[in-house]
Amino acid sequence: MAVITLHYRYLERLVGSDRETILARLPMIGSDIERIEEDHVDVEFFPDRPDLFSVEGVARAMRGFLGLETGLPKYKVTPSGISFSIDPGLAAIRPYLGSAVIRGISLDEESILSLMGLQEALHWAVGRGRSKVAIGIHDLDAVTPPFRYLAADRSRAFVPLDFSEEMTMEEILDHHPKGRAYAHVVRDFPRYPLIVDARDRVLSFPPIINGELRTAVNIICTALAETGATIQCVEIGGAHVPTLAPTERLVSANEASTLLGVELDPLALSLLLEKMRFGAEPAGGDQVRVMVPCYRADIMHDWDIFEDAAIAYGYEHFDAAISPTFAIGCPHPVMEIYGAAREILCGLGFQEVMPFTLTNERVLSSRMQRPLPDSALKVMHPISEEHTHVRTDLIPLLLEMCQLNRHRELPQRLFALGDVVEGLATRQRVACVSTHLGADFSEAYAVADALCREFSLAFTVREPDDPAFLAGRRGALLVGGRQVGVFGEIHPAVLNAWELEHPVAAVELDLTAVPGYPCPPGTP
Q1: Nearest alpha carbon to residue 478 among 486, 470, 467
Q2: Is 44 helix (H, G, I), strand (E, B) or coil?
Q3: Rounded alpha-carbon distances, angstroms, from residue 197 to 35, 51, 84, 109
Q4: Considering only CA atoms, which of 246, 217, 224, 297 is closest in space to residue 50?
Q5: In this predicted model, what pLDDT tens digit does every residue of 417-456 receive, in sequence order?
Q6: 434 phi-psi bin (left φ>0, alpha ψ -120 to 50, beta other)
Q7: How far does the chain reach from its first CA to its final CA, in angstroms?
Q8: Using CA atoms, how far apart are residues 11 and 506, in angstroms rounded to an integer?
């Protein structure tokens, strides 16, 4: 979730309304007000609406929602006469480039803060931490077109931002704060992407300093256009970008009425959509022709449009009613086992976390020094390189959590409960990790023993061949001759892979081994 700071003075100027009216209606467009301060408000938006990650984008939406300016925003794009050439050597590295020229813009402190916040929010929501998209904004007066996007030798040197001395691109990855943070994105490439001007001066080393690509360009350009700036396109490989043209869809008013439970004819639906800054008009029968603004990257289905119609109608105007399928639930027996595991581990001083179900081979295998199981379930069409596999173990995800919190105080004792998938079978597991100066095999053994004792598991122990743990400081839990868990002290090489400086004791247990488990192992 992105938290955006909206300065009242700038927001009121762009919306054309007072802060009390804006604050009263702002939550109704799908936001959550985090805190209200004297000169600004911090608002949280869902990551599917990156066009709202700036004061300008929020103002545009609010003008429509308040009925001050409805319909499709129109953005004129003129040629800039500026071009980019792309080095064919980038084809296997970072081959895509988007650009635009913004003129006639006047930035004060508040608009600069909004622009910087938008850039960083887009890096997170659209760019996946710069792995997909890296954004750079430059003063056109200080550079000389045409520009080149090239695959540069790793030894090329220049003076990076906030530094006074030249550094090679390799040195930037090792010593520059942004270089260290994003080195993993380009480290394995034989050459690095670089943008230079006509005088061979370096503009940017993406994604270090400075698809989804079109979305980022459109959002930034249209946000700046809201301040009165003019947009010019750039020639890239023979094509002119951006166009800022809307896309057209035909939707059914009858379908919208059925889905929302509100009677809407094509004209009524069109008026609601215009409040949400779509272009809309009846198109015959029950059809509505909808022009989707170029910055609305979240519109992928007709129902996404109907959701906006519901927002414009006003959620407060829908009748509150109990669902006809209402029933009083009771805990599933597996949830009761989860509850017992929570009580045990909380009593031992652990804190619960909830890692994602989807992960990747780097987390499950390479950093753990374990081969990826043949039974690992791979996502056929992953939306991100970070989410390519369904998790097969919980300990790797807990170590990832420790890495994210490695600068926090010690000790850290974390546990997680949930499903793992082996082939097509789902199993329920519990895992915990403890990291501090004294974390060792004895601590892991004590926790494993406590879990098994409280669950009435009669177990034996043997040493497994698990490279994630130190030899001689690892154990496998056997119940009825079947391995149902593992515990021990994490191997130093695994700790290094996770950038952890202190030892880690870890335990993982298959809850399907618990006496009285209510269904056959592998049942979802």
Answers
A1: 486
A2: strand
A3: 43, 30, 9, 28
A4: 297
A5: 999 998 888 999 999 999 999 999 999 999 999 999 999 9
A6: beta
A7: 29
A8: 50
